[in-house]
Prior knowledge:
The protein is mainly α. The protein folds into two domains: 1-44, no CATH class; 46-118, no CATH class. The chain contains four helices and no strands.
Amino acid sequence: MAESVPHVKAGTLKAIGLSSTTRSALLPDLPTIAEQGLPQYALDGWVALVGPASLPKAESDRIYQAVRATLAVPEARDALLAQGYQLQGTTPEATTAFFRAEVARMAKLVKQSGLKID
């Protein structure tokens, strides 16, 4: 998002809608695709830290707390917000649930599309 905003604001690129479920603070007047008549459309980008399945819970929790502490630092938080990120600070358990739900959702879409991988 951050790379395109200067071009949209300069008029050299026309943004037609956000694929995310919410508007962006960087382009608050740009509606989402869902707002424009496709209410089921939702494709949020996300960034997550992942580790091996064998990672001990204590280590996962330690890393999670370190990331939360980093996101609480104003300079770090502001730099990410300026790039268009919406900071969630999701727990490891919620992230795992999100991954599983997204895999199921995308698998359903692929199946509905009829696409096949050769």
